[in-house]
Amino acid sequence: MTSSTPTTHILISGAGIAGLALALQLVRGGIRTTIVEQAAGPRPGGQAVDLRGASRDVAARMGLTEAIEPYRVHEKGLSYVDGRGRVFGRMSMEAFDGKGAVAEVEIARGDLAAVLRRELVAAADGLLDLRYGDRIIAVSQDESGVDVRFEHADAARFDVVVGADGVHSSTRRLVFGGEEQFRTYLGGYAAFFTMPTPDDIEEGWFSMRFTPGTTFGIRPDLDPATAKAMLTLRIDRDPALRGDLAAQKELIRRALHGAGWHADTILAAMDAADDFYFDELVRIDVPNPVSGRVVLIGDAGSSGSPMSGMGTATALIGAWLLAERIAAGRGDLDGALARFAEDVAPFAENGKTLMGGGIERMVPETRLQAALLRASMGVMLSRPMRPLVRRMFATAQADLPLPE
Ligand SMILES: Cc1cc2nc3c(=O)[nH]c(=O)nc-3n(C[C@H](O)[C@H](O)[C@H](O)COP(=O)(O)OP(=O)(O)OC[C@H]3O[C@@H](n4cnc5c(N)ncnc54)[C@H](O)[C@@H]3O)c2cc1C
């Protein structure tokens, strides 16, 4: 990649997967890059995320394959368990050619972020300003750039501002409008955190249990001593939950009360976890991720929620496409952003597909539905039904080619 102009200066809001990946490609292309991340330091946590198809190609084109390799979680597949931990259905990685719920390349979100950060710092070459504990508070733009005010740092002008600040993007709010215009509530909340691996858990398997109102699971980690707890709660949206850690944990306590299997182990681990993540499940649709010299990538511009299993893959693809377009534009930043908006659209749309169906399919509402779901899963995952399920997953995630 060659630089557009040596003086181009780009600001990225958010040092998640999208922000770090974009910054890496920009500094590699010789572009001055500033990132502001509101968290005080790198944010750990998150489950294994999938890299399939185009996102795996992007990781390879970014030269990350080798760096990712030691962090790959080799999951054997997904198994469904009952209240006593007995398995009643399995989706093995091999039987579904890495195209089922468990992908061929899985890496914990926190590990992928750490890999990107390391590569970024190594490539920085004096072009990077990575600031934690700060955020944009005001933006005003004209035809040639964007004036930005920060909470802490001095105001500055940039050629382009990129909102990579996630589902609740404040860049989007400041420039494109309120979140409610772009958000569709998908009927529940998700939580993830690290826990000690229970002794009786089947090594390498992502085990999951359905109960009325809550689906919860335990997923292998890179370190066999730890695992990731995941919960999906089917409840009405409650804006008061946002930022209220005590209320979030109380909700989970109530949801897992008497839920059998490892519900109590998960609850015991929840309070000790230093990477507790909780958020509502929403889809984000921004019709055009570009407004003048401000552009949205990753979840800020488009998201199908963690239920899509595609958030990280789509973020990586978007970041790479934007960096490629800026490099190829050779100083024509407006043209580059317009090309990016066209190129990213099919990937953004594809990334919103909910592979296993929506929350109605993933989290039963009543005891009867839970029993029916368990029975249907048993049948769906039986050997004769595998080709059908494989086809379902293949259609859900189209293997889109990367644009030239
Ligand atoms: C801690 C954590 C754990 C996650 N775990 C999972 C998981 O287990 N499974 C799953 O499917 N998805 C998970 N996600 C979401 C997943 O990372 C994204 O869907 C995907 O990687 C796209 O990434 P993104 O960079 O667009 O957004 P994100 O990963 O959400 O990153 C956005 C970044 O922007 C920062 N930020 C937010 N607001 C501001 C602001 N105003 N100014 C500056 N910075 C800001 C955030 O702190 C964050 O670091 C998690 C996200 C986080 C932050």
Mean pLDDT across all residues, rounded?
A: 90
CATH class call of the largest domain: Alpha Beta
Per DSSP E runs of 2 or more residues, the count of β-strands stands at 19
Question: What percentage of amino acids are in beta strands?
Answer: 25-35%
Instruction: Using the CA coordinates, give the radius of gyration.
Output: 21 Å
Under CATH, the topology of the largest domain can be stated as: FAD/NAD(P)-binding domain
- State the strand order across the main sheet: 5-4-13-14-15-12-16-19
Number of helices: 12
Spell out the key features of this protein:
six-stranded mixed beta sheet, FAD/NAD(P)-binding domain, D-Amino Acid Oxidase, Chain A, domain 2, alpha/beta, 19 strands, binds flavin-adenine dinucleotide, 404 residues, eight-stranded mixed beta sheet, 12 helices
Write up what this structure looks like.
It is a single chain. Strand 9 and strand 10 form a beta hairpin. The protein has two domains: 9-65 and 108-182 and 283-350, 3-Layer(bba) Sandwich (FAD/NAD(P)-binding domain), CATH 3.50.50.60; 74-105 and 186-282 and 356-396, D-Amino Acid Oxidase, Chain A, domain 2 (2-Layer Sandwich). By secondary structure, it is of the alpha/beta class. The two termini are 14 Å apart. Strands 5-4-13-14-15-12-16-19 form an eight-stranded mixed sheet, sandwiched between helices. Strands 7-2-1-11-18-17 form a six-stranded mixed sheet. The protein contains twelve helices and 19 strands. The structure holds flavin-adenine dinucleotide. Flavin-adenine dinucleotide (FAD) binds at residues 13-19, 36-39, 43, 45-47, 109, 135, 164-166, 170, 192, 277, 298-300, 306, 311-312, 315.
